[in-house]
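User: Could you check the structure of this?
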Amino acid sequence: MANEQNARFTQFAGQLVASGVGKQSPLVGLEDKVDKTVYANLEKIHGLIPKITDIFVRETRVFENPLGPYITQFNNRYGAGMEQVAFKIGAYNEKRDGTCFPKGVPDVASQLDLINFAYSVDVAVYDRMVDKAVMDEGQVGAFVAQLLRTPLKTIATLKYRAWVQLLSDVIDGTRSIDSYTASNGVNAPAGVSADVDYDPTIVGYAGVVEKRDEVIPLVEVGVRPVINTPLEALNICNELKARASDFMFESSTYNKLQIDTFSTGVPLLIMEKKVLDAMDTVFAEANAKGNGNNFGYAGFPTVSARDYLRQFAELVEIDCFGSIPTNVSYAGRTLHAVLIDRDAFIENVKYADAESMRCAKERATGTNWQGESILSIWRGVNSYAMLFRAAGEVTFESGNFTIAAGETSVSSGDDIAPGTVLTVTAAASYDLSAVTVNGDSVALNADNTATIIMPSADAVIAVTTASE
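Assistant: Sure, the predicted C-alpha cells are below.
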C-alpha cells in the first residue's frame, strides 16, 4: 500500500518549486538548500532586491548537570587546597590499666585536594556588528541576551565533563590525552590554540571494583547498547541491590581510606541512560513471555529494570562514562555502573565571576568569565564500581576456512566488539557446509560465505566444510 504522505505531497510538489505559482513565488523550493550564492542570485522584484524581513534569535541552551543536585557546594576564596578528615574507627574500648588520665586517640584518615578546575571565557558585543545584522531594538536585545548565555553554556558543559571524568576514575592508573589550549580545538584562532599533553596520574576513589563477565562496550553516540539476555540484566540488578544492602551497615570494606562507616540514606546509582534503556528492554521481553501461562513477570520482580533499581537506590542517569584509567589489571574493561554514598561529591568554589570592559575605539563591550574550584570525590565513604568486558571472545576449532573482520584475520581466542561483522570463508577447494554460533545456525550466502554479527557475549563458532 502506498505511503499516504508521499502520495498526497506529489499533488502539491510541482507548485512548491521556485516560481511555482508565480514569478518569485515561492523564492526557493520547499526543501531546497539556501546559501549565500542562492541569496545573491535572486532576481530583483520591480527593481528591488528581496530582503530578510525578520530574525528569530533562538535560545542558547545551557546543559543542566544531572549530578548537580548531589554536589555539596560551598564558597571559600582563601587558600589553594582543601583537606577532608575523618576518624577511621571509634575510640578504643580496653581494659583499665590503673592510670588516672584517659589518653586514647583514634586513627584519622585524611584526603588532600588542590584547585583542579578553572575556566576563562571571553565574549564581546560589537555595536556596529549588531546594528547592521538586525531590524529593530527587540532583536538587538534578544541577540545580546543569547550571546551572553554562550559563556554559561561553555562553563556548564566543561563542569559536567570534568565531573564525569572524575567519576570515571574508579581505579588507579594513568591517562594520556592530546588536547588544546582553547576548547574549540583545531579551529582556534592562529596563535591561540596549541597542542597540550594531558597526562595525569590517577588515584582511584572506588572502595570496591568488580570485574564482571557481561559484555557492554563503551557507550557511543548513535549506537544502541545490547544486554544479551534478560537474566544478565536481572543479575546486574541483583548484584547492585546486594551491594546497596552492604552500604547500610558499618564496615571499612567499601571505601579507599578504610574508615568504619555506613550510608545514612539510599545511595546514588549512577548509570548511563542507554544502558538502562537496554536493561528495560530485556526486562520487558521477559515480562511479555510471562511464566509459561502468559501472565506474571516470569520471575522478574518489576516491570522494568529502572523500577527495580529505584527500590534501593536513587537513580542518576548520565549520557556516558569515560574510559577508565589505563591499568594492566583492568585492560579491556568498561565502566557502566557506580553505586556511591550521596555525600561523596563536594565542590569548593574559590571564585566565579564576570567582569566587563568597554573598548571605545572598537565600540565594543567585552566580558570575561573566570572561575576556580576544587572538585572532589571523598574517598572516605562507600563506593562500588561495576566493570564489564568491552568485547566478547571468539573461539573455534581450526579447519579448512578463515574468519575475518573486514580485512583483519580473526584467530580463536580474540576479543571482538559486539556488532562487528565477521565473514567466514572456505579455503580453496572447499565449500562451507554449515556454520553455527553458540548453537544457532547461520544462513550461507550465495557466494558460499557466512556472515556473523558478533553478539554481546562470547561466540563459539562451529564450521563444517566439504571438499568440492
